[in-house]
Design goal:
The protein is α/β, with parallel strands linked by helices. It contains 4 helices and 6 strands; from the N terminus they run H-E-E-E-H-E-H-E-E-H. Helix 2 links the parallel strand 3 and strand 4. Helix 2 packs parallel to helix 3. It is globular, with a radius of gyration of 12 Å.
């Protein structure tokens, strides 16, 4: 993993592997992260060296709820503890993209998504 684009590409390919087709282009959003959407899912990819925040997790969840789709989060630097706790409460799958470019499940919702995928 060298660039933010690498992280977005990995997340898009992983979503396709999970069975989500029709991946739509990445959209930069403030204050951080990139959104990728596909049929039935909205994903947040945080390609920075900062852990994904509670605010980021809640924002992508709210956006997904308004579109009636599933949300998933990918991060290079992991998640702040409050973000992980809220994701567990809301059953949001969290993944960390390791340096080799492989998404690793972080919570039970991510394990379930992979098993069902």
């Amino acid at each position: 993993m060298r660039t933010a684009r690498d992280a977005v590409t990995v997340a898009g390919l992983y979503l396709r592997w999970l069975g989500y087709g029709d991946i739509r282009g990445a959209v930069k959003r403030a204050p951080s992260g990139v959104r990728v959407s596909a049929r039935g899912v909205l994903a947040l990819i945080e390609p920075s060296v900062q852990p994904t925040s509670l605010r980021d997790v809640e924002c992508v969840w709210l956006s997904a709820m308004s579109d009636a789709v599933t949300c998933v989060c990918f991060s290079l630097a992991g998640y702040e503890e409050p973000a992980r706790a809220r994701a567990d409460t809301l059953a949001i799958p969290l993944f960390v993209i390791d340096l080799a470019g492989t998404p690793q499940p972080v919570n039970g919702a991510a394990d379930e998504l992979v098993a069902a995928g």
